[in-house]
Amino acid sequence: MLEISGLVNTVGTNGSPVLQHALSIGRGGAVVVAASALSSIVSSAVEDLPRGGATNKKAAPSKKNKAVAVKKSPKTTAESWIGPRGKAVFFMAVAMSLHYLGYSLARPITISLFTSETSGYGKYAAAFPFAMAFVSPMSLGLLLGYGRVLDQHGPRGALIRSTIFCATVVSASAIAINLFEAYGTLIMKVPAAKFVSGPLFVFRESYVQLLTTQYWSFMASALTPTQSAKWFGPIAGLTSITSAIAGFAVSDIIDSIGISFSLLGTGVTLLVSIFAANMAYAISEEHGFSPVAKKHGSNNKQQEQQMGMFEKAAKLFARVPVLLKLFIEILASQGLATILNVAFVARLARSIPNDAERAGWVGKFFSTINVISMVLQFGILPPLLSIVEPRIMWRIVPFIAMMFTSFQASQPDPTLYIVSATLLVMKVLEYSARRMLDEMVYVPLDFESRFVGKEVIGVFGYRFGKSLMSLGLSGITALFGDMGIQEYSILGAGINVLWFWASWSLSNEVPTRKEAEEIYQQQRSKKRGGGKR
Question: Membrane-spanning regions, if any (predicted)?
Fold first, then answer.
């Protein structure tokens, strides 16, 4: 604990001015940083985001009204300084940042509750990978439910309903745990809180991608490949800001209202995010660029609805090979992330036995990850991706992680500092570069490839990779007993090699920026042509 705290203080004291300013989030500067970032994004949108919707039905002012139009323009400057697409993307980015604010509150709390010896399973070393094995089935259930809601209510209705559902589950779990602990409730001589903390941990691991992919799907449909290369970094940076704020504040919140009631903050932020998401969809519908589902192949609607999710995924992968390669890459990367996470939790539980202290430490650790990610997302990745092709970045990212996993594997007994540093690098790469590269793959694609593909890959793929690795770890534990940190580290280094191979294979399918822009413009031309018929 002291080692990582020293690392954070060293970075904050001796690092660059940008990083020092970013670290002020945890020292009272959160509002300034967030406001500055939001102002920068909105102001720059004047030059870069498109003006007007896809279909502007208002005619241009005639010569008779030219003077009137010129006269009115000064009054409407404040109203028209950012186009409708820019406004819609901005509101959706705010909704996503609120989602991550709540998620970053829930993450350290659920980890602490799960690893607690009283309300969780801290006495059982195999409990963590065993629980992770259930993430994929939970994600699949959420995905199937999302598919039905999407068919019935469209993207807007699906986002609102899934957000309300997630907020309700987290809030109800928080209240239940608090009541069970307050009254010492037992079920078959087992603390009742254990029956909630386990499923809650699995649900928290599952729901984050369900909502995240819906936000990104909307923004990918509103921006061109060129715009996405510039703006996906700052947009992701907003989530890093709110995540860092939540992580640094979690200790104070727990001290004020308790560890279980702190989860209610997640439910509140999710409900508030609905207002911003509604604004984004309202603007897109008013100006004619709201995402609308398109049918491929058979026109038989009933047959399309009855098609199984796996059959849909198989047909989608056959039609869009890059998504199949992306799915394989995600399985490998999330398998590695799971191993590093298991090693991190195992080392952490030994080093910090107190539940509240452990939750606060985890919050600060992930806040540090988000601060570093924010610096990359705002200041480094956007200009870098305007020079370096995405396919090159796909090859660089796993190679960077490989250097750290190899070093950790070479240690006979990796310390908390080493294990945390490796996980930090992996998470920074995932939250910054991988997140941007992942979303850029979808931008030139059609509706089905973007929305359905993102849910199949983003929700199920991410969690299936974690669950598959967790099942493997559980099987090894059952056969050979508990694994040590070094064994986890060696296995992680091997999986990192597989990730590098999968990422290289994917990079060969990723189009260049020029090719992606041409594909995107062809998609828009088809959409306009279809609308005129």
Answer: 88-106, 126-146, 158-180, 231-251, 257-281, 322-345, 365-385
For residue 186, the 8-state DSSP code is E
Q: Give the range of the structural domain holding residue 446, as residue numbers without chain letter.
A: 2-40+84-532
Question: What is the predicted pLDDT for the residue at 169?
Answer: 97
- 52 lies in some domain: no
Per the listing, tokens 């189009």 go with: 511
Q: What are phi and psi of 169, to 5 degrees?
A: -65, -45
Report mean pLDDT in 10-residue bins for the chain, 533 residues. 39 39 36 39 41 40 41 39 83 96 93 87 81 84 87 93 97 94 90 94 91 90 76 82 89 86 93 97 90 50 51 82 91 92 88 83 90 87 86 94 96 90 95 84 78 73 76 75 85 96 93 77 65 45
In angstroms, what CA-CA distances link 33 with 22, 59, 185, 237, 383?
7, 41, 44, 11, 20
Whole-number pLDDT of residue 140: 80
Residue in 225, 101, 224, 91 with CA at minimum distance from that of residue 159: 91
Residue 345's identity, in one-letter code, is V
**Closest to 398 (Cα-Cα) out of 492, 497, 299:** 497
Burial of 519 (0-12, 13-18, 19+ CB in 10 A): middle
* Cβ–Cβ under 8 Å, residues 209 and 421: no
Helices (H), 49-134: 66-80, 84-114, 127-132
Map residue 187 onto helix, strand or coil. strand
Q: Is residue 33 part of a domain?
A: yes
Tally: H helices and E strands in the chain: 23, 2
Sequence-ordered alpha helix ranges (H) in 376-484: 381-385, 390-409, 416-429, 435-442, 447, 453-454, 462-480
DSSP 8-class letter at 54: S
Q: Measured between alpha carbons, how far is 309 from 447 in angstroms, rounded to an integer?
A: 16
**Is the CB of residue 444 less than 8 Å from the CB of residue 516?**
yes
Beta bridge partners of 219: none
Interatomic CA distance for residues 266 and 129, integer angstroms? 25
Left if phi > 0, otherwise alpha if psi is -120 to 50, otherwise beta: which for 258?
A: left
Residue 380 domain-assigned? yes
**What total number of domains does the chain contain?**
1
Q: Which residues contact 129 (CB under 8 A, 6 or more apart)?
A: 338, 342, 469, 470, 473, 474, 477
DSSP class of 25: G
The CATH number for 330's domain is: 1.20.1250.20
Q: What are phi and psi of 62, to 5 degrees?
A: -75, 170
CA 533, CA 531: separation in Å to the nearest integer?
6
Assign residue 207 a region (left: φ > 0; alpha: ψ between -120 and 50; beta: otherwise).
Answer: alpha
Is the separation of the CB atoms in 333 and 468 below 8 Å? no
Alpha carbon distance 349, 121 (integer Å): 11
Q: Please give the span between the terminal C-alpha atoms of the chain, in angstroms, as a whole number.
A: 65
Instruction: Specify if 118 maps to a domain.
Output: yes
